[in-house]
Amino acid sequence: MTDSCVPVRCPVCRRDHTYAPPSYPCACGAPVVPPVARGATVTPVTDRTWADEWVTVRCRTCGRRDQWPHPELECGCGAVLRIPVRAVQAPTATPPVPTTPPATTPPALPRSTPRPRPAFQPVPVRTAQDAVTVAALYLRWLGFGDIRGGVKRAPSGVRVAARGLIALIEPSVQPSSLRDVECVWLSAMAESVTCVCFSLAGYEEAARTRADALSIPLFVIDLTGTPQPVNNAAAELTPPG
């Protein structure tokens, strides 16, 4: 058993598991792994709220604190177990400013080119919640920060709010309909934000036609957990390479 693996006993059927938390890419490119609490009691997931779905994790390389999906394990008995995570320590106090002026140092060289964006790390889709997680991670990778609020049930699918954006995720086997696209577009217009759609089963032809007319990016999430652009608006939103 590696250091990151922890033993987990299902409180429903008493079955023993060995759990290894997933790794996510920090903005600096380093892998980030939620620090699971060894020996803590796991709890079955009976109701989902946005606050419980995400956990703050600190990158050991750059110190950045960010929100990532709360670790979960699916037991063979059907129970979904939420794995406890150690709390992130508060940042240390800023050292006092020295009273004597520091030695003169040469100015830093200007950055001529931005740091390349690390490749998106997919999360395999096995459940509807996995599809929502992939969409949220992809939006963050695209640069939409402050993914917040609740996971709201739309007329169809799940809506996720980010800074300046509303995303509709359809995690079922039903293609997204014209009504789905129009509803999320109207909501975005009412809040003066943009919108984007994700779907596991694709889109009805009328939905694609309307999305093209309204310049709404459409993505399909494949089972590897990689969103694929469906129309030109989505392709323009996706970084090259």
TrEMBL record:
Region called Disordered, residue ranges: 91-124
Biased segments, Pro residues type: 93-121
Name the UniProt record assigns to this protein: Restriction endonuclease type IV Mrr domain-containing protein
